[in-house]
Task: structure prediction
Amino acid sequence: MTSTLTTFLIIFLFELSVFTWCLDIYSNHCSEHQTCNDCVQSIKKCAWCSSNMLQLSIQNGTNDSSMATDQSIRCFPRDIAINICRHDLVEDPLGNMEEITNKPFSDNVQIQPQHLNVALRPGDTLNFNVTIKPAATFPLDVYFLMDLSDSMNDDLDTLKRITLEIIEAVQNISEDYRVGFGNFVEKPVIPFLDIGCSLGQPTCSIPAISSFIHNLKLTNDSSQFSETLNRVTITKKNLDAPESGFDAVIQVISCQDVIGWRSGTTRKILLYLSDAPFHAGGDGKI
Result:
């Protein structure tokens, strides 16, 4: 009997010390909150115990017993709160979502749901699904910007071969579409390309190298788009791997009237086709 009692006391004192140690660890964490409101709004994912009589489980052989201990600390991390406080006394509100408006898809409705009310505790997350279906009449502008350096030769052939498929794919997205085309190769200066080209010598092949060439303004004429693709050719005079793609992107975005981007509510897509990185500041510094 004495041995059993001694074992019980040792286990009890050990678990009590662990319990106290856990409280000390979180003394500057959840336990700094003195009210339920502050506790459950903490970004530290804390839970509030409605009772100050905390339950400490004590295991003694095959029997379990518990001891209620009076604690001024009532706010704990979630994983600790459920172990030291009766479950029905744990205040740990979770995030919730209420669907307010969910109209069916139409020319004016392209996303479901349209209106949600979401309540979240700081630091918590909530997953929800959103479905997007663009309206068939919603305007769509697609500009193809292609690298015409030598390594893109087979890609250009492929693009020419599937031109009709590209137009059909765009038409399936929107009835009110426009397509355009531009290309780039390299900055037309030394040391990025053949010295003959940079100095305007006749050794430079045609077409001339440029950081950007605008070939076709955005149009709904599919035959004009196809003809433009068939006219462009590959250039073989640039010397290094990076190209002038970033320069071209800036031009396409900035020159809205020249490119033909429509104003107002229009989906604008720039398709960038290249197999190489673009130049960055400092490239070519000698």
Remarks:
- Confidence is low (pLDDT under 50) at residues 7-16, 23-28, 57-68.
- The chain is about 30% helix and 25% strand.
